[in-house]
Design goal:
Elements: H1 2-22, E1 35-39, H2 47-59, E2 62-65, H3 77-89, E3 108-116, E4 119-120, H4 122-130, E5 132-144, H5 151-158, E6 160-164, E7 168-171, H6 178-189
Helix pairs in contact: 2-6
């Protein structure tokens, strides 16, 4: 009797692991199709990259960092904020490196950005201004140090040829449930 019970428990565990393994980290299956994550990060904390990796783990997405063709100057945070403000005032959008993929060939696209001057980072602004997203659904995740401002509205106003889905913005200095909120947001995309 003991061997049959042990065999039954083992079989249940194997089946449970098979189901869990096929539905992703959270046990919820995502029906987003082929997913692309495009993101930019500047800070040494790399919160935007951390968020992108969480989304990748939930969706099995292709993940690409958007990078300026000419690297930005190496400045401390205060000087970088001033430099970015000057670039914005002068409407100097940086050229970005080739992505190596056509975003329109994916079924769903997440775009991650740090919040700079209450809007998207300069390389993401270039991406949004120059890329045709082929009418695909696109959702923004934005990470701010202190104030996210109108970043999601500005994102929606800049993007070309996309179905803008509800985005999410975090204040990294005060967010305590970052991963849980991000996971819940991604899970909501597949409904």
């Amino acid at each position: 009797m003991g061997k049959k019970l042990l065999l039954g428990i083992t079989l249940i565990c194997v089946l449970a692991l098979a189901v869990y393994g096929s539905t992703g980290q959270t046990g919820q299956q995502h029906n987003l199709g082929r997913v692309l994550i495009l993101y930019y990060t500047w800070s040494e904390h790399a919160y935007t990259e951390r968020a992108a990796r969480i989304i990748q783990g939930l969706t099995n997405a292709t993940m690409i960092k958007v990078e300026p063709l000419i690297p930005f100057p190496e400045l401390n945070t205060r000087d970088m904020i001033a430099w970015v403000g000057e670039q914005r005032r002068n409407q100097l959008w940086p050229e970005i490196r080739e992505l190596g993929v056509d975003p329109a060939s994916f079924d769903f696209i997440f775009i991650g950005t740090p919040v700079w001057h209450q809007t998207v980072a300069l390389p993401i602004e270039t991406l949004l201004r120059e890329t045709d997203f082929g009418g695909r659904p696109v959702a923004c995740f934005a990470l701010a140090n202190n104030f996210e401002g109108q970043v999601l509205n500005r994102f929606a106003g800049l993007i070309r040829n996309a179905q803008v889905r509800e985005g999410i913005a975090f204040r990294t200095t005060t967010e305590t449930r970052f991963e849980a909120r991000l996971t819940q947001w991604v899970n909501g995309m597949s409904r």
